[in-house]
Amino acid sequence: MKTRHKTISAYNAGQAAADREICTLLAAEIGCTLKNGESKIWHGASVWFLDGNPIVGYSKQKKGVRLMFWSGADFGENSLEPGTGKFKDASIFYNFPEEIRVSALRRWLTKAKAIQWDYKNIVKRKGTLVRLG
């Protein structure tokens, strides 16, 4: 049976030591940059939203801790691997805290606030994404 985490701190605390360190660092940096964002566990991942729109999140997966930006494919960042192409997401995986380049993370978070696709209304628009801003 999978553990259900009600808060991001509980999610982070439930990880193995190296993953917990990665998650804690990511949560701190995301929280500092997205001060007005709402954060919660959503579909089993720690996710931050701006005005109800998912912006960034992370989750433990087989390959490591996956940091995903919902609109990251448009950031123009080679370190972020685009998703399947159906959406505008892009990710990076971490297995050790030392792999996190804080300057790159902060740059991506700044871009995440400026470059957004409207995932909040994707169902209402029958799967069509619209660029915000």
Listing every helix as H and every strand as E from the N terminus to the C terminus, the arrangement reads HHEEEEEEHEE
Share of helix among residues? 25-40%
Quote the average pLDDT: 92
Question: What would you call the structural class?
Answer: alpha+beta
- Tell me the span between the first and last alpha carbons: 42 Å
Description:
The chain has 133 residues and is an alpha+beta fold. The protein has a single domain (8-132), classed as Aspartate Aminotransferase, domain 1. The protein is built from 3 helices and 8 strands, in the order ααββββββαββ. The chain has helices spanning 8-13, 17-33, 102-114, and strands spanning 38-42, 45-50, 53-61, 64-69, 81-82, 90-94, 116-117, 131-132. The strands form 2 sheets. A 6-stranded antiparallel beta sheet has the order 1-2-3-4-6-5, covered by helices on one side. A two-stranded antiparallel sheet has the order 7-8. α2 packs across α3. It is globular, with a radius of gyration of 14 Å.
Features:
single chain; alpha+beta; six-stranded antiparallel beta sheet; 3 helices; globular
Write the layout of secondary structure elements.
Layout: H1 8-13, H2 17-33, E1 38-42, E2 45-50, E3 53-61, E4 64-69, E5 81-82, E6 90-94, H3 102-114, E7 116-117, E8 131-132
Antiparallel strand pairs: 1-2, 2-3, 3-4, 4-6, 5-6, 7-8
